[in-house]
Amino acid sequence: MITKVEHPAAKLAYHRKNVWDCLGAEERDRVMKFNEEYKDFLNQAKTEREVFEAALADLKNAGFSSVDLKTGLKPGDKVFFANRQKALIAAVIGPEPLINGINIIGAHTDSPRLDLKPLPVFEDNGMVFFKTHYYGGIKKYQWLSIPLSLHGVVVRADGNSVAVHIGEESGDPIFTITDLLPHLAKDQIDKKMADAVPGESLNILAGGIPLAGEELKDRFKMTVLEYLHRRYAMVEEDFISAELELVPAWPARDIGLDLSFVGAYGQDDRVCAYAALRALIDGPVPKRTAMMVLADKEEIGSSGNTGMKAAFFKNAVREIAARTTSPYNELVLSKALSNSLALSADVNVGLDPNYPDVTEKMNTAWLGYGVVLTKYTGNKGKYESSDAHAEVVAQVRRVFHNAGVIWQSGELGKVDQGGGGTIAHLVAKHGVDVLDCGVALLGMHSPFEVASKADIYMSYQAYKAFFTR
Ligand SMILES: [Zn+2]
Description:
- This protein is α/β, with parallel strands linked by helices.
- The longest helix has 20 residues, at 25-44.
- The protein has helices at residues 25-44, 48-61, 186-190, 193-196, 219-232, 267-282, 312-324, 330-338, 390-403, 424-428, 453-467, and strands spanning 65-66, 78-83, 87-92, 103-108, 113-124, 127-135, 148-155, 161-166, 204-207, 242-248, 253-255, 261-264, 290-295, 341-344, 348-349, 371-374, 378-379, 407-409, 419-420, 433-438, 440-442, 449-452.
- β2 and β3 form a beta hairpin.
- The chain has a nine-stranded mixed β-sheet, sandwiched between helices.
- 28% of the residues lie in helices and 23% in strands.
- It has two domains: 8-111 and 265-467, Zn peptidases (Aminopeptidase), CATH 3.40.630; 113-248, Aminopeptidase i, Domain 2 (Roll), CATH 2.30.250.
- It binds zinc ion.
- The site of zinc ion has 6 residues, from α6.
């Protein structure tokens, strides 16, 4: 047998490790089992409201209760703050005084999709369509000729709401946006990709049988309205107070002969949201208070009162501070925030050998090589990035090294190629130290995003280590 002797200098260089190489048989089984549970979660949570419901059910099962039911808060207490059935904060109170800071992990639960317009239904040439307005950054052509399901809520004029969920069960109808046949697509193919599919042509095919009675106007549309009235007791005006979202109708699936990847809609950013949720639930009571934030509206700039620009994050910290600290004053809040450390748990780009030109190989995350630490995001000279301090990155590296978490460094594309952001800068504005840390994806924002099962599992291990550091 030949023993390979490593040159002493070899230790000096940075090498990323493939996660699979580091896993024993038992741990590989745990990776696969965790991903089965993750796929189940994705299948039941395709909108921000559905993520909220699924996460809340998991938290309640794990002994978390609404903060409103508590009079005081003591170490070991598990509480949640629900924000309008869309955003959710959960915390496990640690024995350390809150003024020493909190370990925070923040992810977002909204994903790019097609929303129905306030008045969506029209008929044309014997067919009924729903008009849409896309949400978030999509490549519009990717949403043509795929099966779509309709999820959401209609709030009728009397204030009663009804949940809509069509296209996920095997007997359900689905919806689609038709594409142009290649035979007649000469002009379309010659266009720039951004102009090839106008936003106003993203109309959903929704029916095609006329209601009996030749004298009736819009008979095809009336069939659809009549169905909606029968099933949901709604009238056309109720669409105006509805939130109905079209998402890919397919379930999460394994990709590859070795089942190495998960392919699914909405992994940005439900992969990090799920890993953070499980890490908070499965971990022990931490020394410092641990807080998970699941925010809405990230894909459209974090605006609105369920997004990270809103007050609910700071209000939740204030409430915990006030209920755990005596005497309480605003100084406690500002000190607690500036002593806190946060991971902005969001996805990053993975190196895609099909598109090598847009990323820089050395600094881009590789799928299967661990959870990704991203010092900065932004575009054109790190614009609008919170650019984590070196000390913060070192602190998180230490936590991961000590816990045996396999991680790698990442960057969002080549300099001047484009870029993007996360909620990191919105956490940082409260004085919190923050670093981006999440899972690398291929096909980000497409209807079918790809992630490595090994990385998904490592993000869960990373978040567990971070909450209890
Ligand atoms: Zn994201």
